[in-house]
UniProtKB/TrEMBL annotation:
It comes from Aaosphaeria arxii CBS 175.79. It comes from the Eukaryota. PROSITE patterns: BTB. InterPro entries: BTB/POZ_dom, SKP1/BTB/POZ_sf. This is BTB domain-containing protein. Residues 1-68 form the BTB domain. The lineage of its organism: Eukaryota, Fungi, Dikarya, Ascomycota, Pezizomycotina.
Length: 131
């Protein structure tokens, strides 16, 4: 078991689940060893705790959780999730976030995407595919 620490929040995650991540950060961490029954921790100094929780949920389930927020705020949350995926180097997570956003965009054709676009453009490199 690994404890992922984000700010003052501690999230228990099976080490084997972290190994499923395509993230450069988690790949380096899990290569150092450690099994599910070993106690270890990793400190994440990027991202919001709710976004990191969403990432871990996705690692377990393959689905991006959808917070109960108005659509405009939901897209901002997804944008922060995309930026987190970019920062940790996990292209599969970024793709899952974009696919989730596309489903919501299709089902909610009236929403303001400006906040989400600002988050993505402000949080990713210009070389990012999101640009």
């Amino acid at each position: 078991m690994t404890v992922v620490i984000v700010g003052n929040c501690k999230i228990n995650v099976h080490t084997s689940v972290l190994r499923k991540s395509c993230s450069d950060l988690f790949q380096v961490f899990t290569r150092r060893g450690g099994e599910d029954n070993d106690a270890s921790s990793v400190l994440i100094q990027i991202g919001d705790k709710e976004v990191v929780k969403a990432y871990i949920h996705w690692l377990y389930s393959g689905k991006i959780p959808r917070p109960h927020e108005p659509v405009d705020k939901l897209f901002v949350f997804f944008a922060y999730a995309y930026v987190f995926g970019d920062e940790i180097g996990d292209p599969k997570f970024k793709n899952a976030v974009i696919e989730t956003m596309a489903v919501y965009a299709r089902d909610n054709c009236k929403f303001n995407a400006r906040g989400a676009i600002e988050v993505i453009c402000g949080g990713t490199q210009e070389s990012s595919l999101a640009w």
